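haha ok so turns out i had the wrong file open the whole time. this is the CORRECT one, sorry everyone. sequence first:
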Amino acid sequence: MALAAEMPMPPLTVEWLTTRTFDFRAEPKGQTISDRLVFHPNGFIVGYNHPNEAYWDLDGNDVLIIDLQGMTTCRLSFIANSGGTPCLAGNFISPWDNYATTATRHILTPNSSDLHTHIQSFDLFDTLVARRCFGPLEIFRRVEEKSGVANFAARRHLVEMSMFGRRNYGLDDIYDLLIQEKTLTNSQAKMVKLMELDEEWDNLFPMRQVTAFVNPDDIIISDMYLPQSFVERIVREKCGLNNKVYLSNYGKHHRIIWPSIKQEYKLRVHYGDNQNADIKGAAEFGIPATYVSLSKWDRTEEILHEASLGPYAHALRETRLQTFHRNAQVRNALQAQISINIPLMLLGTFWLRHQAEMFGATRIMAAARDCNLLIHLLSSTHFARHGLPPADYVRMSRTLCYSDTPEFEAYFRSKLGERTLLVDFVGTGRSMKTFVERTGLQDKIMPCLLVGDDVAPEARVLQTMIHRDYYKCRMYLEALNASLDGSAVLARVNNHLVSVEQQPNEFSDFMKVIITEMRANFFRFLPSLDRFAPPKAPVPLDKLLTAAEAIADLFPAHMLKMHYLGEEQRRNMRRGVAAQAAAE
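then structure:
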């Protein structure tokens, strides 16, 4: 297609992008890839689905097309076609060639479709909100425990099932039957019904990855027995949405709601978690449907359940479902932190409990900077209740470990207990081992690594939870535990007291944004540990090690989505090697 000479173009704005449907074409082949591409206001590409074109963002007068890894695969700028219509065009940046720019041109041309005006519909429970306790039956069990009404949970469930599919019913109808069968008295029914609503409310939280898809004109369709006003309050106060709610018992289940919905709205897609009511039901009426399975246990959470650490799986699930960031690279880092980093911290903390008992340790020293998050688990009240010794954060580095100065040795020794675990999250252990041996502290200190290098001989000698290759795993773990502090470079006396000085933080501005978001997400997770007690007895060591290996085996899939963090850590490593060479 011949392109017209330069002509004035409209401003490239979010409004311009999101109020059009585009043809997506590749040149020079002239192949039309899609005629349904729509820019969602929250940064998603919808109507057309491909891993290379998953998200978008504005960068000045350009549109960045972004893949699932968070990397730019095309930078689109305004051009005009032969008819003078403003189009967007740019060269494809190939993920299969290390993101090299190719000769293939991607061209987006506005078309006459009104697909961008079509609304979306959403299920509510396990789609926009999830229960902290996972399922509704657990709500009934908790109400039984708190109310003291024997056998309430079983009767509450059976009474509802006796009506399900046979008649329309609401919460009041359920409790009327519980009164009729004498499970509850009238006064008990009033009390317990309020307790059920209260328990339901306290357990609900928003699924941020899905609520981010909701536009102001979208609708919510729920098959639910709860009162309409209660459901609308959930939408407003839990999800932060003001969308119209369609509530019935069987509207989706019996397919009776879709004809009226189609008559009133043009639907682009329906989102839901029920394969029958949401997916098959919508499809029978020609409505594309997207299955939402996020509320189910993911593999990380299953691994924790298998290690008899169910409450921690619940806490991680809640954090996972409430985590969302518009920037795909930040979002991928947060997901890796939740699925890999925090679970390894948890397992490592339980593992250190075993090491402390074996060594007779009265104190734990967590080494900077990789332990800048781990220290908050080690020093938490939660793990103190599990029998973990007190923990402190020690500012140390390779530079200081090899410096052989009385100032740093004084600083270090002042933090020791009678017997101490010296912990690093990830590394070879070489500098720790060298320092401990040089200072003659082998009898007082046991160096430990949560993730040790699988080649370095020191990591094979030290107490190490698991071993992993540096470039395949460890480097990315270091990135996930990156700190906003600079590296410790000097111990000096200031007015009679030793302090450790740090160099300026070496990371890029965007990496600092990622670090800030990862820290914030960790501190959103941490208070969830206050909702339950730790195990009374040490978790069996074989279960911990099996779980840690299984979690680490999930890393390769996340590494594909952590390209930026990997590159940043490589640059950081090269700077460190250069600085060490200069010092020598």
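The chain is about 40% helix and 20% strand.
again sry for the mixup
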